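Ligand: uracil. Inputs:
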Amino acid sequence: MTNHLTVVKHPLIQHKLTIMREKETSTNSFRRLLREISQLLAYEITREMEMTTKRIETPLCEMDAPTIDGKKLALISILRAGNGLLDGVLELIPAARVGFVGLYRDPETLQPVQYYYKVPQDLGSRLTIALDPMLATGNSSAAAVDLLKKSGATNIRFMCLLAAPEGVARMKEAHPDVPIVTAALDSHLNDHGYIVPGLGDAGDRMFGTK
Ligand code: URA
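Predicted complex:
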């Protein structure tokens, strides 16, 4: 991908996102819509994957048919909200390897604190897609990508549902080589680090913890 930021403006994504933003939307609907949007974003983020051909036989003849080149992807869920994107993408790409990065935001400093890290060993040979619905300050996203690079990942993309300009700028400064694919670029962050207009706390809304 050449652009650092891609906002996918497809009507299906935008329509579903509007329902997710509404405060009265149920946990059940929120989760289902996130899963659906994750698959539409996955379509975009994998658009330029390297292809090769393989010789196959249809019932009529032989042909050189297109197939994805090399090893399949690695999907990295940034806990816990990343799991809301993971399920849908895995449904689309069931052979992907999966990793988890556990980071929480210190509510005072808004800085990321790591509590879990387990990723596939061969990240260097896979397209690695980091998943986190909310790119807010960008601190935890940048920290997660730092960890993935330390583990050998060289071809990383970042999928989110909403991005704040502050988070995009932070990622561009820390990881200009990591393209971001999002459903929307919102206005700004509030004093608590929430995206405005946003949708609130994505983890709480998808898991019903508030
Ligand atoms: N994380 C969330 O869940 N929501 C925001 O608005 C920002 C970070």
